[in-house]
Amino acid sequence: MAVFTPEAPLSASPARSGEIPQRHHGLDAARALALLAGVLLHACVLVTPQDVGGALRRLSPDVVPFVLFHYIHIFRLAVFFVLAGFFARFLFLRHGLAGFAANRLRRVALPLAGAWVFVFPSMLFFEVYANTKAQRSTHGWQAILETAALTWRTIASGTAFRNGVPLSHLWFLYYLLLLYALWLPLVYLVSQLRSKEKYEKAASELCERLFRAPAGLLALALPIAVSMARMENLEGLRAPNQGLRPYKSILLAYIVFLACGWCLHRQAHLLELLKRRAVPYLITGFAAGAVTLVVIAANNGVRLPSTFIWWAAYILSYPVAMVLLCFGFLGLMLRVCAEPHPAFRYLADASYWIYLAHWPLLIALSLLVARWRLPWAASMTLVLLAAFAILLATYHWLVRDTWLGRYIGGSRPKSIHHP
What we know:
Layout: H1 25-47, H2 52-58, H3 64-131, H4 140-156, H5 171-191, H6 196-212, H7 221-227, H8 248-266, H9 270-298, H10 308-336, H11 342-370, H12 376-399, H13 403-409
Helix pairs in contact: 1-3, 1-10, 1-11, 1-12, 2-9, 3-4, 3-5, 3-8, 3-10, 3-11, 5-8, 7-8, 7-10, 9-10, 11-12
């Protein structure tokens, strides 16, 4: 795993000489499931019906992929950035600012660049293939070769970049680097101040109040609501996967979660509070998410509402769902995965590779399965089973014990220490 490397475990405190840091196995499970949920999310995209609003109003089974996509999209990346902030503080204390920057270059920036070189032409190939299907008279390998040639001409002419650099599903790594660039210099400057204890104490007290007050976490929804005020549709926080120009609204929303992860590492006793409140958080978060689905159904789709009341209902409920589902999920993982488990350990190691490589593979498999005209449930199940089989096999035999595995996730510990 490039973002949370096994040689530096998710710990409540930095390692000192001769001391084994506490490992939170629930956070290992959370990071693996959050990334694997991204594979399910993209599989849902491929079978989501066009008339989402109508399917929701009819309670049609065809809307299930959209509902799954909707809930996964609400909380998944929030979880990722909380864990990124948690681990960032561990690395910062262990290696300092320069060591942190070098580690993130190896584990985030280089995997982003390496994966993009493969993902971008693959995704463009499938886009060209789909767009030229109606006009194409050839089939089989000849059609594939023609599409490959047209894809290369699209790249060489610069046409593929007319709307910016396509980041596809890798955009979250790019934004993680941007958030590091905003957050770490601020933390470093505070650490150099003579009165740093005063600022650290104030931050600790604020964190305690936010997490301990019954409705304290709802305050985190306010900056997210502000970031969504100029949204273009009812698809939640947008995925800025086209172009390198950063969206300030996305940075504002996700730096909230990065900061929360940083504070949770500083005050790791609050993780016990998340464990106790996991179920209430999840129930309330699902209810808030249901409100957003009602708005989409009433608005006949994901276009922007024409009335203020529906807009306000969505703007207020979506951030609440995002915050509560994120921390409810983390608390649940800490509860049910408190002990190390070989399967979760393996998935945690494999999840980063699976996520980096999955999207082009899902599209290729969906094109193959589409010939059989199966119901969406059968089609999505076949695609997911085949994709996971291929990705796990390639990880096990081509990645795990090779230079690529060390490049992506670092060296793996030979044994797992209990807390």
